[in-house]
Amino acid sequence: MNVLDLVRPDLRGFGGYLSARKQNSGGAVWLNANEAPLAQRFDTLQLNRYPEPQPGDLRRAMADYYGVPDSSLLLSRGSDEAIDLLIRALCVPGADSILIQSPTFGMYAVCARLHACTVIDSPLQETAAGFVWDIPGMIALALRERCKVLFLCSPANPTGQSLPAAELQRLLDGLAGRCLVVVDEAYGEYSAQPSALALMPRYPHLAVLKTLSKAHALAGARIGSVIAAPELIAILKTCQAPYPIAKPSAALALQAFSEGALASTRAGIAVCLSERERLQERLHALPMMVQVFASDANFLLLRCTEADRLAAHLLANGIVVRAMSHYPALRDCLRVSVGSPADNDRLLAVLDTFPGATHA
Ligand SMILES: Cc1ncc(COP(=O)(O)O)c(C=O)c1O
Fold first, then answer.
1. CATH number of 3-256
2. 260-352 in CATH: which number?
3. Which residue ranges of the chain lie beneath pLDDT 70?
4. Which numbered atom of ligand 1 lies nearest the CA of 212?
5. 222 C-alpha to center of ligand 1: Å?
6. First-to-last CA distance in the chain?
7. Model's pTM, two decimal places?
């Protein structure tokens, strides 16, 4: 199967914008991009010059870290931009569709809407143990509706569960040659499940999203990536803005792959996992909690007796959590990020003062 068969027919031979950096490199006197010849005195990064479209050192560092060839990784402005690029490159506006599994991360549907694409939903199923995917239902729906892209968030935001590798394989087998399966692993570092990247050599219609925004603690730098077959990466590159990765962000992000920074990332993940367990136990015992969902991510989904009133009480005490009332299946739920141990102590202390809490 050639993954290019899934790309918009009108974009298959498209070269994109020919930027000055792409047209020529090398030379000593740069007069090709209408830049200022001298940097500001405060500027240590030569920001008078446009950046490399795909900063090579960062791209190689990320590819090495994820264990993939750098030709299969595209740097993006967060995974948000990668989601947008995938829809842009594969879906014909006004004609094609994507498949999601609600309740899920909102940007898949937002980007689809911005590209005039239909959103087909194969909702997660709620069981006593939490939410699960309906893999046969997803395959049948994606084939029936001829969906071009299927976004699967694992670990899932906001419901917290991961998809077992065997289930993902079943999904990939069922959609081979028909639909690009995009596994969004924004929270992958917090899960014991192996990354979908292990399956990539066998499935050219698999793409994986990675980000530095969560476990690597660089949400403000806006660096993400999409990992996919090199021929698809080449197409995505033509759909991207000419200089998407700002030099200060790239320079900062590169530091995240030093031994010292990686050790501190691992330590941050370990603290998050133990705090997640502590919060799970403590929250479970509170009278207003109907359910504390299991989580493979850095947040907990809570079903509460009075979610709105509880969120308002937390806010009045300076604690901001995410209401889930915009998801019909999660109307009575709140999503709470696992904070620092001190943040979590504060959360628990304020929850203890919630007036009128009744046992569910
Ligand atoms: C599942 C999921 N994917 C992608 C993103 C966007 O991440 P980024 O900061 O890399 O754009 C988020 C952000 O919360 C997310 O929850």
1. 3.40.640.10
2. 3.90.1150.10
3. 356-360
4. 10
5. 10
6. 53
7. 0.96
